[in-house]
Specification:
This protein has one domain. Helix content is about 75%, strand content about 0%. The protein has two helices and no strands. α1 runs antiparallel to α2. The termini are close together.
Length: about 70
């Protein structure tokens, strides 16, 4: 049963990497909008940057929860 997941095995590295990239992109977009002096920069900060951050957090939490639910089930 090599396909079983145990609690001491690492998380899915690809999904964690994707979530990290999304978080970094969100932070970069938010940093750029802080120096951008235009009324629309607030909306870009809020929806685009915040959206990337939110999706990155959701992907990471999904990976984390699924990993430990599988480990608990086994």
């Amino acid at each position: 049963m090599a396909s079983r997941i145990r609690a001491n095995e690492p998380l899915n590295a690809k999904q964690v990497r994707v979530s990290g990239i999304l978080l970094i992109l969100g932070l970069l977009i938010e940093a750029l909008t802080l120096v951008w002096n235009h009324p629309i920069s607030f909306w870009v900060f809020l929806f685009v940057g915040g959206g990337f951050l939110l999706i990155g957090i959701v992907v990471f939490l999904h990976t984390f929860i699924v990993h430990f639910l599988r480990a608990r089930r086994d």
